[in-house]
Amino acid sequence: MKRLEDILFIEGKIRLETGLHIGAGNSEIKIGGIDNPVVRDPVTKEPYIPGSSVKGKIRMLLELRHGLFEEDGGVFSVETYKKMLEDSKREKEEIETAKNLLKLFGVSGADLGDSEGIKDIPPTRLSFYDLKLTEESSKKLKDRVGSLMTEDKVEVKINRISGTGEHPRHTERVPAGAEFEFKVALKIFDVDKEEELLELIREGLKLLEADSLGGNGSRGYGKIKFLSPEGKEGVLKVTSVLSKEEKEPLEL
């Protein structure tokens, strides 16, 4: 039986370098309205970033980075990991990275069984919090943009012969410069190597900065920067829940 040794909070902020669109879906389109609204908190009505969006994107980027992306588009699975264990050509470091990825992001309990080599994988080590606007950004957006706190980005299809724009499409975005509070919790068990898990998280966060978050990333949306709680770029605060001591910051 494994023992929980600590829970680490990794905290800071995400600053939007370009407009962000994480869609809420829309069952109807009103004439003159926005085609693609952003997701909003049902109580405050403010735009927010679901923790699941950050988790899913980081997992996908890490799977791509380490050659673990499933050909059918599904997430890296225990079944694929079991095949890696049986493959004598696989390097030990490669297998450890795959195992740590499953530890961090989780697996389905039905897939586990009692096989040797996978019984210390569960439970999921990382818990992502939903990201709400910082108090300062919330105030700035209300003062400068209005109560919706978003911009209406209009895109058109260019007719290559006439050179004119056609079929305008409206997409709602949270404007560049807005900041969101970022927080994840990392469980550390006695079977884990804390430095290896933190290194994989650091790599995933760095990849997210280099790529994009949300929709339309290939068209310039969703470029972000991680900041410390005080606003320093590329640094996140790490705190032990049990000892309540601040640890070495995570530098990206």
Question: What topology does this entry show?
Answer:
Blueprint: E1 4-16, E2 48-49, H1 51-65, H2 78-86, H3 92-105, E3 126-128, E4 131-132, H4 135-144, E5 151-158, E6 165-173, E7 179-189, H5 194-210, E8 224-227, E9 235-240, E10 250-251
Antiparallel strand pairs: 1-7, 1-8, 1-9, 2-4, 3-7, 5-6, 9-10
Helix pairs in contact: 1-5, 2-3, 3-5
Structural summary, described in words:
This protein is α+β, with helices and mostly antiparallel strands and 252 residues long. Helices cover 26% and strands 24% of the residues. It has 5 helices and 10 strands. The chain has helices spanning 51-65, 78-86, 92-105, 135-144, 194-210; strands at residues 4-16, 48-49, 126-128, 131-132, 151-158, 165-173, 179-189, 224-227, 235-240, 250-251. The strands form 3 sheets. Strands 1, 3, 7, 8, 9 and 10 form a 6-stranded antiparallel sheet that branches. The relative contact order is 0.25.
Which key features would you list for this structure?
252 residues; alpha+beta; 6-stranded antiparallel β-sheet; two-stranded antiparallel sheet; 10 strands
Short structural summary:
The protein is α+β, with helices and mostly antiparallel strands. The chain has helices at 51-65, 78-86, 92-105, 135-144, 194-210, and strands at residues 4-16, 48-49, 126-128, 131-132, 151-158, 165-173, 179-189, 224-227, 235-240, 250-251.
Largest sheet: 6 strands, antiparallel
Topology pattern, helix = H, strand = E = EEHHHEEHEEEHEEE
End-to-end span in angstroms? 34 Å
| Structural class by helix and strand composition | alpha+beta
Give the count of helical stretches. Answer: 5
* Low-pLDDT sequence parts: 27-31
* Number of DSSP-assigned strands: 10
Helix content: 25-40%
Radius of gyration equals 21 Å
Strand content: 15-25%
Overall pLDDT confidence: 91
Shape: globular
